[in-house]
Amino acid sequence: MKKIKEKGFMLTETLIVTVFVGTILLFMFTKLQKINANYSKVYTYNTLTGVYNAGNVKNYLTNNYLEKLILNYRNTADPYIDITNCNLEYYASSSYCTELYQDLNIDKVLFLESDMYKNKWTSTSTSGLSQGMIDFIDYVNEDNEGDLYRLVVSYKDGTYASVRIKGGNI
Amino acid sequence: MIKNKKGFTVLELLLAFSLAMIVIVYLFQIVSLVQILYADNQDKSALLVKQNNLVEAIYQDIGMFEQKGEQLRGIAPCNGENNCYIFQFFDQEDKTLKAYTNASSGKKYIAYGNYVVEYPKNTTFGNLVVDRSSYLESDGIYGDSAYDTIVHISMPITLNDYREQYDLNIVYQYNSKNHPDISINV
């Protein structure tokens, strides 16, 4: 009867177990990355201060040329209108607007549709926007059939906030 | 002679245990990290909720979304106290916003009216500042209801334990021609 040589068998077993456990660790690590990312979102997306500050911009726009902004948006093929530069087309006073943005610690303000995938957004729409802004816009996007718009604001402290604007009877 | 081949060699055992220990050490680090994240998250969340309540109370009182400017009558510094302002209203009692440190305990607080938020000892408060900017001579056209005055209430707050900023940043806008009775003393 032949004797079976059993040298090296234990090492194979150990390697198989190590690969198995390593796979589990990798799986847990990727899940932890997701948990960490979601944890960051809670502290950066739609903070209370951010939402109130975005509301301040909305109030100021409402007191100025919001109707013109909505009409221009409807008539343009652009997926968003960037109103960070205090354009006098939409603001009565660029100095007031600049001061307001500075006090609110604003980095960028965009005006766009609430359901951004409805009409204008394509794969090239996000050129010129930071990845953080793109992720946030994707986060606040909502399916709707109504005449709804959004102000999306990014702040210099890395937070983001958004407020809805109704098109109304414009 | 028949050799007994049951069992493991010492080298095989050592190798198996070494690999197992490496895996256990990494697992232990992950568990520790999750525990620390959880504890930090709990503390930060609780503090953020309290600060948010304070900020919301201020915005509700000054009539942020009312667009009337009728509720806030004025803001004035407290007599002889730093980091303290009195908010005066038409329709309710005055409230004080102040940031202070308890001399005996070293604990730090921000209070608005009766609502008090306690911060960790290792927190740094900057100066509580109320600023007013008026743009009465515009470079555009003001409507009757357009805002021409910005009131900015700000205070840097650094949570050194978490290396994060929880700054107070409140902005209030109104039309000074429609509301000449609002008095902001800075």
List keywords for this structure.
heterodimer; A: 170 residues; alpha+beta; 2 domains; 5 helices; 4 strands; B: 186 residues; 6-stranded mixed sheet; 1 helix
Order of helix and strand elements from N to C terminus of chain B? HEEEEEEEEEEEE
Oligomer: heterodimer
Lateral arrangement of strands in the main beta sheet of chain B: 5-4-3-2-1-12
Number of domains of chain A: 2
Q: What is the number of helical segments of chain A per DSSP (H or I, 4+ residues)?
A: 5
Number of discrete domains of chain B: 1
Any idea what the shape of chain A is?
A: elongated
Task: Please give a structural write-up.
The complex is a heterodimer of chains A (170) and B (186). With 170 residues, chain A is α+β, with helices and mostly antiparallel strands. Chain A folds into 2 domains: 7-44; 45-166, no CATH class. Chain A has helices at residues 9-44, 48-62, 66-75, 94-103, 131-140, and strands spanning 80-82, 106-113, 148-155, 160-166. With 186 residues, chain B is of the alpha+beta class. Chain B has one domain. Chain B is built from 1 helix and 12 strands, in the order αββββββββββββ. Chain B has one helix spanning 10-62, and strands spanning 72-77, 84-89, 95-101, 108-112, 115-119, 123-125, 129-134, 149-155, 157-159, 164-165, 168-174, 183-184. In chain B, the strands form 3 sheets. Chain B has a 6-stranded mixed β-sheet with strand order 5-4-3-2-1-12, with helices on one face. Chain B has a 3-stranded antiparallel β-sheet with strand order 6-9-10, with no helix packed on it. A 3-stranded antiparallel β-sheet of chain B has the order 7-8-11, with helices on one face. In chain B, β9 (157-159) and β10 (164-165) form a beta hairpin. The longest helix of chain B has 53 residues, at 10-62. Chain B is elongated. Chain B starts with 9 loop residues before the first helix and ends with a strand. The mean pLDDT of chain B is 84. At the A-B interface, α1, α2 and α4 of A face α1, β8 and β11 of B.
